[in-house]
Specification:
It is a single chain. Strand 5, helix 4 and strand 6 form a beta-alpha-beta unit. Helices cover 30% and strands 23% of the residues. The chain has 2 domains: 151 residues, 2-Layer Sandwich (VC0802-like); 161 residues, 3-Layer(aba) Sandwich (Rossmann fold), CATH 3.40.50.150. The strands form 2 sheets. Strands 2-3-1-4-7-6-5 form a 7-stranded mixed sheet. Strands 10-9-8-11-12-14-13 form a 7-stranded mixed sheet, with helices on one face. Bound molecules: S-adenosylmethionine (SAM). S-adenosylmethionine binds next to helix 6 and strand 9.
């Protein structure tokens, strides 16, 4: 079957690399969507192992439609009965961008009617009770009249690993935090520091990577309730992932934040993920002794000052951070911020900058490599 891994804009290449590492052949890469070839096993592995993807979906069809009649007919020829049983639930979610059929509720309703008609016919039953406990979330995406129709296999979005019970006001999605670590120069033999660590997401994602822990190991997926999934296969893939943990890899990971409350949350989150050895310390970054850091990677998501009145204080903070960081020796910094003039404020040109979105905010990941 054809499977789709969805992701945030800007993370496509990372997801592609993760799929390649699993040995899964890529068919097509588009904005926020990587189509790959795979069977039931591939679907389970992708859900369990991808760190930067949001969802794994079964691709049901792709076509052009500009009228509701066309949409109804095109959806009606797709083999829904292959997956959805007589009493399974199949809610429909639709998004439409720059398309003639722009009403999302109307698209949802037409798709639902068409799937109902097909299932009634194929299952030879007027009654589709939708009460078996298995859910097949149908996702409809239309962009410039081109429809892509999928069934979601993940359930909760994959950024929900299960370790983060509490967050601060500006938490970063685990998928973006993992992407930042992948885009950095950090390897587990180096010290890693987040001087604005908040609830600890970047550091926990780094620890999971260092010890080769599958990000989906401690959560459930929608596909687990699907009767056609071979439960033994799922159990085996899960056990194999458990066996691949490298718990012996030592972690040299430090998080600082000015807020003692958020650090308690960070400690709790790290504990939930199985890490008691990430060091969290309540410290204003001005009081960090940067001179004692050598050959260390810093990765962080500092305050953004999104409101206009906060801008001057954040700019001052970035300037002061630049001065403090300049005392470190041979260290690298990977920092995400919407600020277009961060390098000027920081006092050094960036070696690289990459556009990434953090919760819909256009940001830049600036890289300052070791000198
Ligand atoms: C955008 S949040 C970081 C969110 C984090 N990546 C997460 O996933 O939870 C920025 C953090 O910077 C901290 N902060 C603000 N001023 C600081 C300062 N002067 N020194 C250290 N931390 C500070 C805030 O308490 C906040 O937790």
């Amino acid at each position: 079957m054809e499977l789709i891994a969805t992701c945030a804009f800007g993370l496509e290449k990372l997801v592609q690399d993760e799929l390649k590492k699993l040995g899964l052949p890529i068919l097509k890469t588009e904005d926020g969507r990587i189509t790959f070839e795979g069977d039931e096993k591939a679907m389970i592995q992708a859900n369990l192992w991808l760190r930067c993807a949001d969802r794994i979906q079964i691709k049901m069809g792709e076509f052009q439609a500009t009228t509701f009649d066309e949409l109804f007919d095109m959806v009606g020829v797709l083999p829904w009965e292959k997956y959805i049983g007589k009493s399974d639930a199949f809610p429909v979610d639709a998004t439409s961008v720059k398309s003639i059929l722009h009403s999302e509720p109307a698209i949802q309703s037409i798709v639902k009617k068409s799937v109902v008609k097909r299932l009634q016919l194929k299952h030879k039953s007027e009654i589709l009770s939708e009460n078996s406990g298995a859910t097949y979330q149908i996702m409809v995406k239309s962009n410039k009249d081109q429809f892509v129709i999928t069934i979601d296999s993940s359930g909760d979005s994959l950024h929900k690993r299960g370790y983060r019970t509490k967050t601060n006001e500006a938490p970063m999605k685990e998928t973006l935090a993992a992407a930042m670590v992948k885009l950095s120069d950090w390897t587990p033999d180096r010290t890693l520091v987040d001087p604005f660590c908040g609830s600890g997401t970047i550091l926990i994602e780094a620890a999971l990577m260092a010890q080769n822990i599958a990000p989906g190991l401690n959560r459930t997926f929608a596909f687990e309730k699907w009767p056609w999934i071979d439960q033994n296969m799922f159990k085996n893939i899960h056990e194999e992932a458990q066996a691949e943990k490298k718990s012996e890899v030592k972690l040299r990971i430090y998080g600082f934040d000015i807020d003692a409350g958020i650090l308690r949350t960070a400690g709790g989150n790290a504990g939930n993920a199985g890490f008691r050895n990430i060091n969290f310390q309540c410290t204003d970054f001005h009081d960090i002794d940067f001179a004692k850091f050598e050959n260390t990677t810093f990765i962080c998501n500092p305050p953004y000052g999104e409101r206009l009145e906060d801008k001057p204080s954040v700019e001052k903070m970035y300037r002061e951070f630049g001065k403090e960081f300049a005392q470190s020796r041979n260290c690298s910094l990977f920092i995400i911020t919407p600020s277009e003039n961060f390098p000027q404020l920081f006092g050094r040109p960036a070696d690289k900058n990459r556009k990434l979105f953090n919760g819909g905010i256009k940001c830049y990941l600036y890289s300052f490599l070791s000198k």
